[in-house]
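To the wet lab folks,

You asked to see what we're planning to order before we commit. Fair enough. Below is the target structure as tokens, and below that is the sequence we designed to fit it. If anything looks off to you, flag it before the synthesis order goes out.
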């Protein structure tokens, strides 16, 4: 078997929260959108990474995903995110921190999703 990509589905009560996190803050682009459909959704993309964001109160109540984004320059990512979207910094990991397993990390959190930014 050969796979070329993993594309997770992420459910939000309000899809605008996901757009703030991933498009405004982390600079993903919207590759496809159907915001006016009965079940609003979009595909977001950055450097070949993709996710599908859905608006669904029912599924959002059942799912609170957490993702790791690995970078080679955590200082650059932290500087940009903390300057533009400090409200998204997770209170338990709001600074770049060397973790016991050897990775440097900080975290973001919106109403639905946790995102850990990591550099080995």
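Sequence we intend to order:
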């Amino acid at each position: 078997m050969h796979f070329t990509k993993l594309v997770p589905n992420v459910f939000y009560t309000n899809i605008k929260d996901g757009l703030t996190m991933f498009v405004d803050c982390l600079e993903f682009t919207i590759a496809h959108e159907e915001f006016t459909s009965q079940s609003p959704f979009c595909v977001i993309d950055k450097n070949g990474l993709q996710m599908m964001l859905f608006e669904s109160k029912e599924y959002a109540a059942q799912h609170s995903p957490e993702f790791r984004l690995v970078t080679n320059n955590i200082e650059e990512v932290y500087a940009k995110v903390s300057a533009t979207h400090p409200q998204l910094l997770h209170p338990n990991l709001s600074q770049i921190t060397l973790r016991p397993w050897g990775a440097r990390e900080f975290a973001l959190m919106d109403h639905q999703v946790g995102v850990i930014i990591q550099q080995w």
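Structural context that might help your review: Residues 9-119 form a domain with the 2,3-Dihydroxybiphenyl 1,2-Dioxygenase; domain 1 fold (CATH 3.10.180.10). Strands lie at 9-12, 29-34, 41-46, 49-55, 66-70, 97-98, 104-109, 114-119.

Thanks,
Computational group
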